[in-house]
Amino acid sequence: SKVTSLGQLEMTWRSRVHFHPLLVRVLHKSRLRYYGKPEKKLDMPYQAYFEVADGSGMMSMVLWNSLCPEWYNSIKVGTVLLLEQYAIKTSYPFKTQPTPGDSQMKRFATIEISLNVRDPPTKISIIPEEMVKPEWGLPEVKYRFITRSELDALPNNHSCDVIGLVTFVGRVERTRKREHSEDFWLYRWAHAIDGTSDQPFILELFATSQPDVFEHIHPMTYLVCTQMRVVRDVTENPSSTVYLTTSNESQIFITGWHKGQPYTKDTKVKNFIQWTKTQSEADQMKKTVIGGYYPFPRPPNNFLKY
């Protein structure tokens, strides 16, 4: 009945204690963060960020503690939520910012929606897509897909989405989060082709909060990676070391997970599917590789240069 908008919240949040319900669509989803420390006795020290939007703009929403195991997997990019009894806080200034697919969208960066088990106990409802009404004015999820032929022209740190046919996937490797730290990031290298270039996408895929997908990337699967960042070594030969790495908001999907995802309507995704229909599976299979050690960027050919 009485629904407020993100724009109204930003203008009135200081003068209110209770807020009207919100109807929003999830546009971005961060990986799950564990912030437990031995000296702090928290049962479930988890946190996850989402970027949510309505007709007035986009704002961050934070899921805290025991709400994470309960809701994290159910709230996907594209999900429509009805939020009741939430709190509003000033934004945390150091969090990562995803690049919105719609560059015209207004971003409310001063405050964020905080969802907790208590103070106040938030009520979250997922609205099925077939019940979402056009008059609610919720924005569609938009993407920034690029083809392999477009990659060479993009600057360092540019944000993009890609789809490709996996031709190589490396073993899972690990790197320290910080020097002398006991924590490690897990990652693996993958190559994917899309038919627009002789070169593959070189993808550095860090383990996101999707272990069931990360562990099952294999050759000949259709791989979609969103919110990837371009990395180019400008000091060396710039054309030879362009690759893409995951960001905090990256989502990864493989064959079997694409059904119902918002990107299936994207033109570049449809073009890629058309291209795969022209390919011989047996020919592509011969070119695929799995596992092994993959040093990248490649070291120089001789020791003197090294």
Automatic annotation (TrEMBL):
It comes from the Eukaryota. InterPro entries: NA-bd_OB-fold, RADX. It holds the Pfam family RADX. GO terms for molecular function: single-stranded DNA binding. This is RADX protein. It comes from Pterocles burchelli.
